[in-house]
Structure formats: structure tokens, C-alpha cells
Design goal:
about 230 residues; alpha/beta; eight-stranded parallel beta sheet; five-stranded mixed beta sheet; about 30% helix; about 25% strand
Length: about 230
Amino acid sequence: MHIFYTPNIINEIYVLAEEESKHAVRVLRLKNNDIIYLIDGRGGFYTAKIIDAAAKKCIVEVIDTKTEVGKKDFYLHIAIAPTKNIERIEWCLEKLTEVGIDEISTLKCHHSERTIVKNERLEKIIITAIKQSIKAYCPKLNEIKNFKEFVQQRFIGRKFIAHCGDGMKQNLKDIYKKTESALILIGPEGDFSAEEIMFAIKNNFEPINLGNSRLRTETAAIIACHSIHFLNN
């Protein structure tokens, strides 16, 4: 199954972006009348036929359209402090996308060892992941934001902060209810500071743990994402 990302698709006749055209014609060696599949990142899943296999502007004709493919009855947003090793956060976003997530934010925290990320590269990783995992929805990726500024933003649903510090914490599986939308904060390698944890709690975030093990930042994000999906099955 050959899948291509077509975020601007509107009509039945569509020209693949140059990079996608090259991949289709030069790498996959697809030809006229070959069948391919398109995803628009908004729930649309299309079956299409190549009508002009040009390497720079491959033209396709949509022959079948499905909408809201894979739509969930809950919304999941994970906000994570980027790791010092950017490859770990890239891997994390790839896996979050494969499991299924609606929105991803990056945070600048007190203990952050990385405060700059290149969203352009992360977006490419996310797009590759939705094609690989055959997902019709593309997660929204936000620009990095200061922790306190982010925490004060409005969010409709349950808000959680996962941390390793002392104090009352409940396991996510014990308090999350099926179909609830959720925003989960995941801290940096040095964890959230005590001040950040208290600030989040004052802004209606519920402190949680994700099990008995002390997890790496990227592992915690993936466990949180998978747990929400598991609890909704």
C-alpha cells in the first residue's frame, strides 16, 4: 500500500507535491493507472489512480473518498519538555504519532537542558509516521512555550501532570474515565521543579504517576499515550 500525504487536496484531480512525486515515480517506480492512497491529515482517506506519472508533478485522480477515518471519541494532548539528545524526542514524537495523538506541545521548564527545537524537522517525522501507521489524522504540533505560560492556557478536559516528586499522586488508570479528553504534562530529564508542580496544581492539573518505575522523559510520554488508548478500548 503506497500512501502519500496531501494536506491541500480539494478536487478529484490532484498534483502531488514535488517530494512526493519524486518518491512515487523515481523511488517506487509507479506508472500511469497504478493505484495509490492519499491522506489529508484531517480524517480524509482517498483511493487514487495515477494519470500522469511525472517525476516533478505527478497527477492523480481520486476514485474513492472516505472521511473521518480513525476518528476517536476523545482528544489527547501531550506536552513534553524536549530531551537534551534531540534524537530521543524525535523518536518519541514518531511513536506518539503511531500510537495515536491529537496534539503535541514542547515545554521550557526550570530543569530543561534543551530550550530550542526545530518544528520543521519534527513535522516531517510526524508526517512520515502517519503514513507508516496509516493514519488519516495528523497531530497538531505547537511551538515551544514557557511552562507557566502553557499551564495557564485554557483546555477543555482533564489535566494531569506526571512527575517523580513526593506528595499525593494517583495512578492515571485509577482516575481517568473513558472518552474524557486529556492534557498530560511530561517533565524534562531533571523532572519538574517543586514550584512548577505546585503551579500546575493551582491551575487544576492533577498529579499522577505512570507506574512504579522511574521512566525516561520519552518513555513516560509513550506510556501515558498508550494508557489513554488502552483505557478507551
